[in-house]
Structures are given as structure tokens and as C-alpha cells.
Write a structure and sequence with these properties.
With 122 residues, the chain is an alpha/beta fold. Helix content is 46%, strand content 21%. It has six helices and five strands; from the N terminus they run E-H-E-H-H-E-H-H-E-H-E. Strands 2-1-3-4-5 form a five-stranded parallel sheet, with helices on both faces. The radius of gyration is 14 Å and the shape is globular.
Length: 122
């Protein structure tokens, strides 16, 4: 049987100082977390590995940051999660890391409507 994940952690690599401890805490709570630093095979199959994590995760946890706004891969992941939200009824939670609602609105007014938590880090 294929492994399922409770959540997929989408983040910019520049935010690992926040996301590494977060992923560890979630895993220690007993959640199955798809996290690229743990689950992404350093192989030629980058897209396939990401697709696999997206397809097998129930929730998307999106760490929105200034770095996240500038990366192409994170935009692709975010677009995939929006499609999963609309067409597969998956859930998305956003965490604002070093940004506020005004920054998110400037990035995407649509994304700003998704339930969010404000990180106290940074």
C-alpha cells in the first residue's frame, strides 16, 4: 500500500531555519508529513516526486514568506494546491512567515482569503 501523508509542507528553501523545526515538531506529534528535506529524492524525477507528495497528502501547509513569493517551484506547488482545493476538496492552511496580510494581498489577493496563522518567528 502506498504511503499517505497528513500534510504536505510547501516552503521556500531559504526558510529552512523555520520549516525544519516545524516539520520535526509535526512529525513528533505523530503526523505523517511530506517535507522535501525528508521525502524528496535527489534524483532526475523531481517533478514526479513532488507530484507523488501532492497526490498523497490530505492537507497543504503553505509557508508564505518573501522568499516563497519569488521562487518558481513554490508558485507551481501553490498552483497545484489551489487545483487540489477546488477539484479534490483538499484543505490548505497558510502560515505567514516574516510577512503580513498586506504582503500576501500584494502577492495574491486570492491566497489572502485562505485561513492563515501568523508566525511569531523572525
Amino acid at each position: 500500500m502506498d504511503k499517505r501523508f497528513d500534510l504536505f509542507l510547501s516552503h521556500a528553501s531559504g526558510d529552512n531555519d523555520f520549516t525544519n523545526p516545524l516539520a520535526d515538531k509535526l512529525i513528533n506529534l505523530g503526523l505523517e508529513v511530506w517535507y522535501d528535506n525528508h521525502d524528496l529524492n535527489k534524483s532526475e524525477q523531481l517533478r514526479e516526486d513532488l507530484d507523488n507528495g501532492l497526490k498523497k497528502s490530505d492537507f497543504g501547509v503553505i509557508i508564505l514568506s518573501k522568499s516563497y513569493f519569488t521562487k518558481e517551484w513554490t508558485r507551481l506547488e501553490l498552483n497545484a494546491w489551489i487545483n487540489l482545493l477546488v477539484y479534490s476538496k483538499r484543505k490548505i492552511i497558510t502560515i505567514y512567515y516574516g510577512v503580513n496580510i498586506h504582503d500576501v494581498i500584494a502577492f495574491s489577493p486570492m491566497i489572502s482569503t485562505i485561513n492563515a496563522f501568523q508566525s511569531t518567528e523572525r
